[in-house]
Amino acid sequence: MKKAVLASAILASLVAGTANAATVYEDDSKSLSIGGRAEARFNISDANKGKDNSGNVFEDESRARINLKGKAKINDQITAFGKYEVEFYEDDDSDDFKTRYVYAGFDTQAGAFSYGKQDSAQVMLTDYTDILATFGGDGVDLVAGNKDKRENNFLYAGEFNNFTVAANYIAEDNKGNKDSDSYGIAAQYAFPFGLSLGAGYVNGQNGTDVDASQYNLAVSYEFSNFYAAATYASGENGDTDLTGYELATAFKMDKFIAQAAYNFKQLENAGVKTDDEDYFALEGIYKFNKNLRTYAGYKFQQLDGADDELQVGIRYDF
Question: Most exposed of 182, 217, 237, 255 (fewest Cβ within 10 Å)?
Answer without folding.
Answer: 255
